[in-house]
Amino acid sequence: MSYNDFKDSQFMNALANRSDLEIFVENKVSIFALELFFGLDDVLNTLSAAVTGGSDDAKTDILYVNRDQGSIVLVQAYEAQTFKKSAKGNKGADLSYAVNVLLASPENDIPLGIKPHVLDAREALKSGEINMLHIWYVHNLPENEQIKQQMQPILAPAQELLTKYQKHEFDINISIKEVGLETLDVFYKSSKQAIIIDEEIYLNQPSKGFRVSDSDWDTFVTTVSGDWLASLYRKFDRTELFSANVRGFMGANNKDNDKVINAGIQASARTSPIDFFVFNNGITALVHEFTLDENDQTKIKSIKGISIVNGAQTTGSLGSLDNDINLDNIQVGVRFIKCENKDKIESITRYNNSQNRVLQSDFRANDAIQKRLREEFTKFNSAEYDGGLRGVTSTDRKLKIDAHSAAQALMAWHGNPSDSYHKKMAIWDNDELYSLAFHPTITAGHILFIYTLLEATNLLKDDLRLKDKKNETQQNEKEFLAFLNERGSAFMIIHAMSKIIEVLLETNVKCTYGIAFNQKLQRDTCINLWKDLLTKLSHNLKTLKPGLKNRLSNSNEIASVTNEFSSAFGTIFLTLKDQIRNNPYKNFVDKINNKI
What we know:
By secondary structure, the chain is an alpha/beta fold. Helix 9 (226-235) packs across helix 13 (312-319).
């Protein structure tokens, strides 16, 4: 497609309606791209930490580590304010420097604005949690062949730098990509429509099978050759081929369960091609249309359009084998499904996609606590809570309270920030952790109280980062920004605030899981109250930094620095109160509901 205006892009039109992303300013295109690519629910609290800090970013605007999906994404971003036919070129040198800082610079030479991000990424690489490194030049203009050519020389040196991290039973792959309007539109379309590939595809030869139909769908069940399936993987863009599949092909190695399966698929293809049919579950694919042989309605000739719903691992495993391996003797079972009903398509995708792992939160989503909380939140006009229930769509993304992020924040307040950081899903699985975060007495107001503190911490970091880019930060602000850039700092702050809340109130907390802001307050007001308080306490909050060592792994250190912070604050509070003859934080305290 040719682009003559931003409005020609579905991605850009959708972004124009995402006011919640405005806080990311010049990085909002990249943030939206990452949200779509990884299927993220809570952008602010997930990706804010990935945005590099301040003016010293080593040519890297975002460094996102996604351990769950085994990926690191290094982003250099450019957002044009007026439409042009191409983005700025000469990206080779900038990206080469960024990659070198990420993978090779001595620790003491890493710029402070990106140091926490780099060390976190290196730790993930060393520990075997990463199998894919993406290097993106993201912009909001048409892609350009010259820019692609400028970026390609980065690949070989980057692969060489990666060798020191290749200590595991699998390869760490690397992808260098210009992500302009063409790719951004693919990301967006993949999130909105099940089938993107629209062309007619002929089978190698008519294949025998049978047809099953109902009022909403029409299906043909047959077999295809391994060679035909592999050819799809090699020909089409993978995001398009797997547009209805939540993960797509993960890559084949022998590291973890998913990837052991992929390696096993490849081994079967090499050594037992005839038996492959009975070893493999086959694939399910959505199509616009299928054409049967006019002389024999039990044979299928071709399909129009395809999106592989289930079987991405099979398709990718066969397609990534060397081209000289003969796949003609392999037969793979396949169901081609034609369906126009949008709701039914979503159900087909959900129920057929075996890669759609059952999350621990799925089991809690309909317990009495989460049901009650969802009902309580209906009384708030500035918050919508999903309670771990998947498939819930917010009327306004600014209103959304993600249950998983809320659980982490609650764990930091009521428990240990180390568990918040390292046991995100275990909170939902472990009865003790779950009851610590979601006690039976917890109220919706209390969740909003803690969640807005998490939001305030991340938003304050973004404010300081933008201020630092303009060289307007004072020394204390620079130091506080450096602290906020550290992994897990938000959870550390939440934990510390829980230790001083009674000092602020000058009384005990009447209901541990009920303390909240006054319900009449709007969410933005709550966030700003926390931001104002955190700014006033910034000199003291920096002292919590030792507790962040090794990604909050030292519980003794966390307890020690938190106790020191609490004691110091108590002294400061009494001194200030004695001077002004009033609670120095009265404006904040007056907005709190501390009743049984």
